Amino acid sequence: MKTITMALAMMISMASLAQSKAELKSHFEAYYQQMKSQGDIQGVINAMTHLEVLEPLQTRRDTLAYLYLSEGAYSQALNVVGIEKNAGDSDINVEVKALALKNLNQPKLAIEQYNVLYSRNPNPQLAYEIADLMVQTDDLTGAKTKIEYGLANVKDDMTRAFFERQQPYQTSLKAAFLYLKGIMTFKENQTANIDAALKHINEALAIDPNFNMAKISREALEAKKVQKN
């Protein structure tokens, strides 16, 4: 009799727990929709976090990480999806890792994730991001390959955003590749390649005279040339 009573108590407790979990899930789903309708990103993140605890889903984790990324919470984004290179990761998962690692000044780890995306869908935009990081890490051979691919495949209407000014701006992706080729050329030989680097940067400015990063780099190279002479 005692055993039957204990079993009944456990069944009632489990049923109550299941009901409580279902009620919580329903509550946070409604909370999520309300926060979404109000445009409250932090509220959406909170709702999704509670839902993830109640019912873990990979797609939800990917979205949650992307929301953290969009808010500039790069460490939190990586805490959700990790930093490991996994062939089975979704595109959004890999993109979150690549962008978060890049913004946390981990270029070598970011390159690994960008290469996963590039292997799935090679395109000039990804080639530029990889080449830029490779120049930063002095992998100039790898950068050259991606720059040449980019220049061979870039379309005139493709653009790239830059953020070094207070007001972000867009420039031609082809101009961006030429600018990056100039930086790479200079890094290959900082004494002998000043003129060759200036040539590429001037080609970039011929496409977009308002390309601020190219103008800054040209001024620096011209000053270096004066010092050399």
Low confidence ranges: 11-18
* CATH homology superfamily name of the domain at 122-229: Tetratricopeptide repeat domain
Calculate Rg over CA atoms: 25 Å
Report the biggest beta sheet as strand number plus sense, adding barrel if it closes: 2 strands, antiparallel
What is the correct CATH architecture of the domain at 122-229?
Answer: Alpha Horseshoe
Give the count of helical stretches.
Answer: 11
Strand percentage lies at under 5%
Fold and architecture overview:
The protein is mostly helical and 229 residues long. The chain has a domain at 122-229: Tetratricopeptide repeat domain (Serine Threonine Protein Phosphatase 5, Tetratricopeptide repeat, Alpha Horseshoe), CATH 1.25.40.10. Helix content is 76%, strand content 3%. It is built from eleven helices and two strands. The chain has helices at 2-38, 41-54, 58-70, 74-81, 91-103, 107-120, 124-136, 140-153, 173-188, 194-207, 212-228; strands spanning 159-162, 169-172. Strands 1-2 form a two-stranded antiparallel ribbon. A hairpin with a 6-residue loop joins strand 1 (159-162) and strand 2 (169-172). Helix 1 (2-38) runs antiparallel to helix 2 (41-54), helix 7 packs antiparallel against helix 8 (140-153) and helix 8 packs antiparallel against helix 9 (173-188). The radius of gyration is 25 Å and the shape is elongated. Residues 11-18 have low confidence and may be disordered.
